[in-house]
UniProtKB/TrEMBL annotation:
GO BP terms in the entry: phospholipid biosynthetic process
UniProt source species: Flavobacterium kingsejongi
Alphabetized GO MF terms: ATP binding; kinase activity; metal ion binding
Residues where substrate binds: E70
Keyword Transmembrane: yes
Name of the protein described by the UniProt record: Diacylglycerol kinase
InterPro entries on file: DAGK, DAGK_sf, UDPK
GO cellular component, one term: plasma membrane
Localization (cell): Cell membrane
């Protein structure tokens, strides 16, 4: 069996598909648009408050976590709707679990944001 592409070419194609998927998420899914916008706002806040390197790492980890889990939630919802377009109790249960994962990620991100920004806001 002959490989259709080299290792480098395959990685470039993979990166292109990943970038296109991220672009589709940010431009078509309202929940991602909101969360991406919040990520941009807290990034601007990070520059304004001159947060530390560790705080930047935690903030970007939190943003990536929420966007990544929300992307997986969206994919699960799209697959579930494709497989079973009508209401089904088990499909609803699966979608609720995926949404719950987003909730946990968002709570973690909120907690990180509060730890970073409350002391900085109170110091103004």
């Amino acid at each position: 069996m002959k490989k259709s592409s080299s290792f480098i070419t395959g990685r470039i194609k993979s990166f292109r598909y990943a970038f296109m998927g991220a672009y589709k998420l940010v431009t078509t899914e309202h929940s991602i648009m909101v969360q991406f916008s919040i990520g941009v706002l807290v990034t601007i806040a990070g520059f304004y408050f001159k947060i530390s390197n560790v705080e930047w790492m935690l903030q970007f980890l939190a943003i990536g976590l929420v966007l990544g889990i929300e992307g997986m939630n969206t994919a699960i919802e799209k697959i579930a709707d494709f497989i079973h377009p009508d209401f089904h109790e088990k499909i609803g249960f699966i979608k609720d679990i995926a949404a719950g994962a987003v909730f946990f990620a968002a709570l973690a991100a909120l907690t990180i944001g509060l730890f970073i920004y409350i002391p900085l806001i109170l110091a103004l």
